[in-house]
Amino acid sequence: MATLPGDTGHATTAEDAMALVDERGVVTGWSEGARLLTGYTAEEVTGRPVSELVHGDTEAAGRELCTSGGTVVAVRRRDGRRTELALRVCPLLGGNGERRGYVVTATLDEGGQALGELAFRQSSMAMSILDTDQRYLRVNETACRVMGRTEAEFLGRHFPDIAENEEHSRGFLRHLRKVVRTGRAVHYESWTRAPTGARTHAWNTEMWPLRGPSGQVLGVALAAFDSSEQYWARQRLALLNKAATSIGTRLDVIHTAQELAELVVPRLADFVSVDLLDSVLQGEEPTVGPVDTDLELRRVAHHSRTSGVPEAAIALGAADVYPPASPPARALATGDPVLTRTGEPDLDGWLGRHGDRSAKLREARDHDFSLMAVPLVARGTTLGVAVFVRLLTERSPDPFDHDDVSLARELASRAAVSVDNARRYTRERTTALALQRSLLPRAMADQAAVEFASRYLPAHSKAGVGGDWFDVIPLSGTRVALVVGDVVGHGIHASVTMGRLRTAVWTLADVDLPPDELLTHLDDLVGHLSGDDSGVGGELGATCLYAVYDPVARRCAIASAGHPPPAVLFPDGTVEVLGVAAGPLLGVGGLPFESTEVDMPEGAVLALYTDGLVEARDLDVDEGTAVLCTALAAPAGDLEDACDNVLKALLPERPADDVALLLARTRALDTGQVAVWDLPADPAVVAAARQHATERLTEWGLDEAAFVTELVVSELVTNAIRYGGAPIQLRLIRDRTLICEVSDASSTSPHLRRARTYDEGGRGLLLVAQLTDRWGTRPTGTGKTIWAEQTLPTAL
Fold this sequence. Notes:
The chain has 23 helices and 32 strands. By secondary structure, the protein is of the alpha+beta class. The radius of gyration is 49 Å and the shape is rod-shaped. The N terminus is likely disordered.
């Protein structure tokens, strides 16, 4: 309430100062409060234009008053003084709704109340005032503009009657009621599309209680700020942070592309496809080729917010040809994103010429969409293109904008680096795997001593292919060597080292060294490789298990260099892990290796493996070995099935380490296939030895081999008597070949030499070498054994 100057004892409120103005702007009524406020009587004002009372731009004041319903103007009082008055206007309507005039109320603008009113009405934020029942009392200009309605359409109406029935509106109403209920201010953030705009917006709304003099809540005031830019900035940052942890989790090109597609749907797009050059999938250096010709890309990933990916016109793994004018080809050619949408000639023309894509458009009810083609470029190399599609509907009408393009470019760049890393890894792994497979036995000949099956599985880890290997090496006397080894480390270096060690084992096996001696020589070799100047770098380490099985003696000699012991499935169904001395790793040097001999019955299955088998699935060695034994004992049709049983029981889908597995079922030669004679060191026994051999060949039906065998027996026995000494033993073995062996007490190995014309000796071994297919010598515990092998006649 304000007391007017010059007035005694009469208090006048703003509602007392009132004037009636007709539609022409002429004063037709004047209240006593108006007289007291301005000094003019009704007689002096009535019939005059109201503009004569205003000081300043009367047209601007009139427009502001009619537009906003209120303003502050300067008025000339009757005594000449200038007074600032806060005016409000209310139209007068006739019976038919026609405008007859206006009611103008005025108050002194003491303390800037009118400015506060103007601040409310002209605020850049949408502001409203509602009563405790959520009915609108005031709405400012910004709120009216955002909502697309006049203030009169809001006043007195309940909020739920104005708002659409959506979750954000229901949340808004809950917060309004919470302010009334608690008397405390609240903050509400919503993501919605304003009725007057096509774009969706983020709104940050502050709601606070309006209290009367006694503190009671009379209503709720609110101010809403359009925070769309800040909201999108946070969303883009969150998406980029998510990309840092969810793209490139595996060194796999296709998996990385799928991670990109799944990340951006539905956060950025409704559908995403990733197409790559074939050379990228093969690990090769990609080349885009001429930019003015058709470009072939292969679909490696796509994803959609709709189950089944109905938008995809190209199946995963299929190739498609993109003409130069198509958005994907343009993006690849220029290295920059291409932004387009339906209705633009380049996009519509491409889609219309592509049968599958055109059919997809005809199937869709609403095929208006926005499209971004973003090249995947890493380290200056173009790998492929990602296509982002956003469907444009009434509820989601916003096409991609330049902020979306920037975000997509950043995501594609990160994905491209991961794809290129995976490509490089694929190339190195393919090279290492090809090298390793070339060094592993491709096809091993069937052996008389064992029936065998094997498996080699390269690792799927980021470390790369390892250095695991296995071998089945035929030895003299129908014996066989079973080998399995593992080079420490992964990659090409490990594969090369594995190849060198495998070659060394073959060389030492050809000398027919016992297992412990062979590992000693192999250990020396690894020490030399570690200390040479070849530049292979670093210390070398490897494990190896070397076993020799003799089908005649039915015994197996085994030595280990830090390798897991073998397991044996015996014919009675029991499984046992052999107690073999582990020995030091190859390359340690200076420590001895021990050989263990065990009886090995016919039909026993010997399992040799690398540690990647028993340490998979997060099992420790003991647990893994127990699972291996159980898997070996499981029923199996043959050794191939047994290998599959073992791998299925122990390995995950993607093993983290290389795995080598060798299963060998022992065979045995019966006594009827072997003939043995102990001979004295007397030259006279040579004729008897020839006679023994001839008679046994006759029993075996090998008379055609008698002539050569007699000569071989004669030369080898004579050599043993002359240079070796007792004990002397002659042994004939009939298997797939005919083997003649003569053992003596000397450890000196013979060698071929060319005899001179008058030499009495020196021609024996040369004759043996010419008459037989193979010959050689091997050390024994008491001396040596010289052996010769000849192919049996075909008819036999």
